[in-house]
């Protein structure tokens, strides 16, 4: 297992009557661990206060055509699992401060883990999420991995 530095940038655009209305950007840097097994890359990191899920652990399994994310631990009552595969829908439960609610994802795009030079790798995910009809947004997530020596 290798120690890595992760830069996570998320952009969320909410819609109102089909038009983009509000944009929110979040960016944070944290340390994590990475290892490869077969054709998959595994990444694990601890969430921070900035993400709103401090005390939780997030794990990613990155393979050629999909990314599976699992967030678990305190303060969540249930695990949140998301699977991103271009053009595919995924349904599951999303943990909120008010409890878990039904979630549906549609992945618009997901890249393979790409070499970004200077010992860095990048991953990009573009997806729409609907939380039990309460909110709907388009999200763009970029993960930059810097390998520590």
* Largest beta-sheet details: 11 strands, antiparallel
**Gross CATH architecture:** Beta Barrel
* Rg measurement, Å: 15 Å
Q: Tell me the overall shape.
A: globular
In total, how many beta strands? Answer: 11
The parts where pLDDT drops under 50 for at least 5 residues are: none
Broad structural category: mainly beta
Cα distance spanning the termini: 12 Å
Total number of helical segments?
0
The CATH superfamily name is Calycin beta-barrel core domain
Molecular structure report:
The radius of gyration is 15 Å and the shape is globular. The protein is mostly beta strands and 149 residues long. 0% of the residues lie in helices and 72% in strands. The chain contains no helices and eleven strands. The protein has a single domain (2-147), classed as Lipocalin (Beta Barrel), CATH 2.40.128.20.
Give the arrangement of secondary structure elements:
Elements: E1 2-16, E2 19-37, E3 40-46, E4 57-62, E5 67-72, E6 80-84, E7 89-96, E8 99-110, E9 114-117, E10 120-131, E11 135-147
Feature tags:
149 residues, mainly beta, Lipocalin, eleven-stranded antiparallel beta sheet, globular
Short description:
The chain is mainly β. The chain has one domain: Calycin beta-barrel core domain (Lipocalin), CATH 2.40.128.20.
């Amino acid at each position: 297992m290798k120690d890595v530095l992760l830069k996570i940038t998320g952009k969320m655009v909410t819609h109102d009557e089909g038009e983009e209305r509000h944009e929110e950007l979040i960016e944070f840097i944290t340390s994590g661990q990475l290892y490869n097994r077969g054709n998959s890359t595994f990444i694990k990191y601890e969430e921070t206060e900035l993400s709103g899920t401090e005390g939780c652990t997030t794990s990613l399994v990155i393979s050629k055509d999909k990314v599976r994310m699992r967030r678990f631990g305190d303060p969540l009552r249930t695990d949140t699992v998301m699977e991103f595969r271009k053009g595919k829908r995924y349904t599951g439960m999303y943990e909120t401060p008010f409890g878990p609610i039904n979630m549906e994802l549609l992945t618009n795009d997901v890249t393979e883990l790409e070499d970004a030079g200077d010992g860095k790798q990048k991953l990009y995910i573009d997806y729409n999420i609907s939380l039990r009809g309460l909110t709907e947004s388009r999200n763009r997530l970029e993960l930059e991995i810097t390998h520590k020596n």
